[in-house]
Design a protein that fits this description.
CATH architecture: 3-Layer(aba) Sandwich
CATH superfamily: P-loop containing nucleotide triphosphate hydrolases
Shape: globular
Distance between the termini: 63 Å
Number of strands: 14
Radius of gyration: 20 Å
Structural class: alpha/beta
Strand content: 25-35%
Low-confidence stretches: 1-5, 8-12
Number of domains: 1
Helix content: 25-40%
Number of helices: 10
């Protein structure tokens, strides 16, 4: 299936990810209850919600890191939990929240690991691998520093290296858990701009878990809001980021306005929250 992308380019394959009546548990403690999600193809989506709402747990299930207690996650219409690991890795890439690279490994060596799903034991590196590595490094702007150690570059470059690894897998779907965590604001925009470019130019379907509501609204085509393990809202950022939802899901009194130029919603917490925090600091000091 060939699809026209946002910038006029084309993607030549599409992999579909769907969660149906998804319930997830850690032992006897259920953390996600009856969630449905058909991930829109060739779009960027964010899963949002307060701590403990189940958003990262849903991402784990979508990536097959967690087996549903009830319900199913399907990849191209097949239960993802019954598919061979190698096949899943050729269709779906994952960037976990705390990705750690071996000490001293270079950016190129890290990105090369994205080719493992295409290799049997002892199989040699070939031209397809070289093309995938070159493309991943170029697309993420890392070609000129690919020989540097991962632990010797900036936080933004390090995140780009992990994204390049997922690109080298040549997957059509990327799942990212808090890709901007611990990054300065400039690097946060750098990483999200890169993901936006990959989506627009190559049609990569992207699902992110993000805490920053304003960044999520700015970069997403759709949003899923989670609350107490359940789906609280789904839709465009303008449909999901409302004053009513901020209060119902986050317990936040806020004003929501549209940003100039992008028309995306921006959340402004009520002054009472900052005043409450100041009173708390004074009381405990």
């Amino acid at each position: 299936m060939s699809v026209i992308l946002k910038d006029g380019g084309h993607s030549h394959s599409t992999h579909h990810v769907t969660a149906t009546s998804l319930s997830l548990a850690y032992g006897h403690r259920r953390v996600v209850e009856n969630v449905d999600l058909a991930v829109p193809d060739h779009q960027i989506g964010s899963i949002i919600g307060p701590n403990g709402s189940g958003k990262s747990t849903v991402l784990k299930a979508l990536s097959r890191l967690m087996t549903p207690e009830r319900g199913t996650v399907t990849l191209d219409g097949r239960s993802i939990n019954t598919m061979p690991t190698r096949e899943v890795a050729q269709k779906l890439g994952l960037l976990p929240q705390s990705a750690n690279a071996p000490e001293g490994i270079t950016i190129a060596e890290l990105v090369m690991r994205g080719r493992y799903p295409y290799h049997r034991f002892g199989q040699r590196w070939d031209k397809a691998d070289e093309r995938a590595l070159s493309h991943a490094l170029e697309a993420t702007g890392l070609s000129d520093i690919s020989d540097r150690p991962v632990d010797g570059v900036s936080g933004g470059q390090r995140q780009r290296a992990w994204i390049a690894l997922a690109l080298a897998q040549e997957t059509d779907v990327m799942l990212l858990d808090e890709p901007t965590t611990f990054l300065d604001i400039a690097y946060q925009f750098e990483v999200l701009d890169l993901l936006s470019d990959l989506n627009a130019q190559e049609g990569v379907t992207i699902v992110m878990v993000l805490h920053d509501l304003n960044l999520a609204a700015r970069y997403s085509d759709w949003m899923l809001a989670m609350h107490d393990g359940r789906r609280a809202a789904f839709g465009t950022p303008n449909e999901v980021i409302t004053e009513q939802l901020m209060h119902a899901v986050f317990g936040l009194h806020a004003t929501v306005e549209l940003a100039k130029g992008t028309n995306t919603p921006v959340v402004f917490p009520s002054p009472q929250h900052s005043l409450r925090a100041r009173r708390s600091d004074i009381t405990t000091s």
